[in-house]
Specification:
Elements lengths: L2 H9 L3 H4 L41 H10 L5 H12 L16 H8 L5 E8 L4 E7 L5 E9 L2 E5 L3 E3 L8 H5 L1 E4 L2 H16 L18 E4 L9 H12 L13 E5 L3 H8 L6 E5 L5 H7 L8 H15 L3 E7 L7 H12 L6 E7 L13 H13 L9 H6 L6 H5 L1
Helix pairs in contact: 1-12, 3-4, 7-8, 9-11, 12-13
The structure holds iron/sulfur cluster.
Length: 410
């Protein structure tokens, strides 16, 4: 028995004596299973097709080579990159520094349209905007733009659908459609910056070139980011590279979340980028997490926490543990103690817990913890010396496990 499993046995009282235990189950749908009856996990994308190569898929040098292939001087790649990454435009009519002859063809080849807006929903007095995008093959994805004091955060999708099959998640129940291309990920940020520049985000005084831009990006929209690893990293490199190569957002302001793909977490730690890593844990014990987050079948709680700790050691970046508090399912006091014990067993000062309150949904098993249970859960973590911050209400709508808790809770 390892130290951590010993801790689990010590910390767990007779559950019946303490609290009701609600077990996870898919509501309003049937969870797909594999031949052995376990929830199906999809790693390979059923749809292989990708959109046409876009400027944001390429490094600046590759863009120059492409432009030369198209019969234009290499510096046109820099001009196009400036339009896209600094002025957020792909409209040839706005690119008056490019000669009129051949301009449309060049823009068409380098900046093919990637996202078509289907719907834009505003809440929080216009300080939150949820975009629904249609991709070139009809797949739909969302991104959510939020203004907070001193920062503008965008939650982006990394896949159309998701193969991780979490029973609380509508996206997971529908399965994986395909991986997004790097440019489809980047273009969500460009589109958000364009909306801000057009004065669309409430609470911001300036529009046009002086408008604030997206300062923080969380990969918590649709999909499991680390299951689309290569394109995710390409997108991150574009987002963080200074203009004209990319958008120039600080890597420290990017958060990559995962349900716990351990080898990919290790790989991310080796990329040498000071990204924030967030582990969507939701349960400290394998018995519950096996059902709540099916990837736990592959990599157990202790392995996921070990890899999160390694992430901290390699990058020096404090890890976030995301924990959606669900009434009578994972909000028991003994689970707070067990979580604290497992985190402290791996050292101090390396981790921060974000409990995420669900919206109350009467009649559903996926409903909010009571205020008392929430307060007690946080008190126990705090008492054990674990920094803990309850997410605000906007966070709960869109930042829950990969953004999809709202699909059942909202
Ligand atoms: S919660 Fe996240 S990882 Fe789980 S199925 Fe939904 S999108 Fe995928």
């Amino acid at each position: 028995m390892t130290e951590h499993t010993a801790a689990a046995h010590r910390a767990r009282p007779d559950a019946a004596a303490e609290h009701v235990q609600v077990r996870p189950a898919a509501e309003g749908g049937k969870q797909a299973t594999d031949a052995s009856g376990r929830p199906l996990l999809q790693f390979a994308s059923p749809r292989r097709s990708q959109p046409e190569t876009h400027l944001a898929d390429l490094t600046l040098e590759e863009r120059k080579a492409r432009v030369v292939e198209l019969g234009q001087p290499a510096f046109r790649a820099v001009q196009l990159s400036n339009h896209y990454f600094e002025r957020f435009t792909a409209d040839p009519a706005e690119m008056t520094d490019l000669p009129a002859s051949g301009r449309n063809a060049l823009v068409e080849a380098m900046l093919p349209p990637l996202l078509t807006e289907v719907r834009r929903l505003r809440t929080d007095a216009g300080e939150t905007i949820k975009f629904l995008w249609r991709l070139f093959d009809g797949a739909l994805v969302e991104s959510v733009l939020m203004r907070y004091p001193g920062r503008v955060t965008l939650c982006v999708s990394s896949q159309a659908g998701c193969g991780m099959n979490c029973p609380f998640c509508a996206t997971g129940q529908a399965g994986l459609t395909r991986n997004l291309s790097a440019a489809e990920i980047v273009d969500q940020v460009i589109a958000a910056n364009r909306a801000i520049a057009q004065g669309e985000l409430g609470g911001l005084r300036q529009s046009g070139h002086n408008a604030p831009k997206v300062t923080n990006i969380v990969f918590m929209g649709m999909g499991e980011p680390l299951a689309n690893y290569k394109r995710l990293i390409t997108a991150i490199r574009r987002i963080t590279a200074p203009a004209p190569e990319g958008l120039g957002v600080s890597a420290r302001h990017l958060t990559v979340s995962s349900v716990g793909l351990v080898p990919a977490i290790r790989r991310l730690a080796d990329e040498g980028m000071p990204l924030t890593f967030a582990l969507s844990l939701h349960a400290p014990d394998d018995e519950l997490r096996d059902e709540l987050v099916p990837i736990n079948d592959r990599w157990k709680v202790d392995e996921a926490l070990d890899s999160a700790r390694e992430y901290f050691e390699k990058t020096g970046r404090r890890v976030s543990i995301e924990y959606a508090l669900i009434k009578d399912m994972n909000d028991h006091a003994w689970r707070a103690d067990l979580l604290a014990e497992k985190l402290n067993a791996r050292g101090r000062g390396w981790v921060h817990v974000n409990p995420i309150p669900l919206n109350p949904t009467p009649g559903s098993i996926w409903t909010a913890s009571t205020p008392q249970a929430t307060a007690e859960f946080i008190r126990r973590l705090d008492a054990a010396g674990i920094p803990t911050t309850l997410r605000d209400t906007r966070g709960k709508e869109i930042d829950g496990a990969c953004g999809q808790l709202a699909a059942v809770a909202g």
